[in-house]
Amino acid sequence: MARRTLSADAPVALVTGAASPLGSSISRKLAQGGFRLALHFGKSKDKTLRLQKEMGSSSVETFLVKADLSRPGQVHSIVGQTTRRWGRLDLLVNNAGLFLPTPLLRPDWNDWTQLWNIHSLSPCALAVAARPWLKKTRGSIVNITDIYGELPILQGHAAYSTSKAALIFLTKFLAVAFAPEIRVNAVSPGAISFPEGYDAPQKKSLIQRTALKRQGTPDEISEAVWFLTSNHFVTGQVLRVDGGRFVY
Ligand SMILES: NC(=O)c1ccc[n+]([C@@H]2O[C@H](COP(=O)([O-])OP(=O)(O)OC[C@H]3O[C@@H](n4cnc5c(N)ncnc54)[C@H](OP(=O)(O)O)[C@@H]3O)[C@@H](O)[C@H]2O)c1
Q1: How far apart (Å, rounded) are the C-alpha atoms in residues 19 and 172?
Q2: What sign for the dihedral angle of Cα 84, 86, 87, 89?
Q3: For residue 6, what pLDDT is reported?
């Protein structure tokens, strides 16, 4: 990562689930683009500290914030901690997610609530808390959704898919509600990594269903986040980065 000069005027981004594969790639990309970063974590403190150390060696200013995004009481505080620290906020990336199976015919109320809180209610609450700050900087929000928020075919994952579908709708809703000062967009990844326990034939079959015949990389997602962050004439868009899964 290129070294950069510390600056009190540098833009500030808050990235949830920052140490996850996509979160860390997004955080690195934003750091390369000159952002200071509030790195959110839920349970992965050590992993997030390692990311912070890596960024510190490139003189990127970072700050760790912790919250369980399935619990409403903890959500708002991470925007407050970030703005108290740096006095501004330019970008919110709602990246945190949980791939938890929820059998359709035996719905578990707690699992459904947890997934809807993480994928839909928390991103909304964070967006509302961030709004006055993003208004001042004419900043933006990028939500990380999933192509399965538009494809009703992921067996055993009704709560995951419907909560990501809600995040897609929320993206468009907030783009209207927060305009003209704040832009709101989403990136919808296809297969970047595979869920634990997927065997080789399952992976192969997913790849066969893409036009480009391969899985994507975290960096291909962070490049899409960067595009949506830096192009100031785009709002309300859901950018599918899925190797052509949708058209194939
Ligand atoms: N990887 C893919 O192929 C793919 C495809 C489509 C969409 N996506 C979406 O892309 C995003 C990142 O995916 P990923 O595969 O890189 O990461 P991941 O392994 O799914 O990890 C997601 C992150 O979310 C955080 N998180 C989960 N539950 C939380 C909670 N209750 N409170 C606070 N944080 C919580 C975790 O933080 P802690 O570990 O600190 O708790 C973790 O860093 C997710 O939204 C996912 O749905 C990924």
Answers
A1: 27
A2: negative
A3: 60
Is residue 189 lining ligand 1, measured as CB closer than 6 Å? yes
Give the neighbor-by-neighbor strand order of the sheet with 91-94.
62-66, 36-41, 12-15, 91-94, 140-144, 183-189, 238-241
Q: What's the rounded Cα separation, in Å, for the pair 122 and 166?
A: 12
- Residue 105 to residues 109, 112, 149, 152: CA-CA distances in angstroms? 12, 13, 19, 15
Place of tokens 């070294």: 3
CATH class of the 12-241 domain in this structure: alpha beta
Beta carbon of 98 within 6 Å of any ligand 1 atom: yes
Distance CA 84, CA 29 (A): 24
Q: Is 149 in the pocket of ligand 1 (CB under 6 A)?
A: no
Question: Using one digit for the tens of pLDDT, what is the confidence trace for 157-193?
Answer: 999 999 999 999 999 999 999 999 999 999 999 999 9
2 has pLDDT over 90? no
Q: At what angle do helices 122-137 and 158-177 cross, to 10 degrees?
A: 30
- Ligand 1 binding pocket includes 148 (Cβ within 6 Å): no
Task: Name the residue of 45, 95, 206, 209 to mutate for ligand 1: max ligand atoms within 8 A of Cβ.
Answer: 95
Q: How do the domains of the chain map onto residue ranges?
A: 12-241
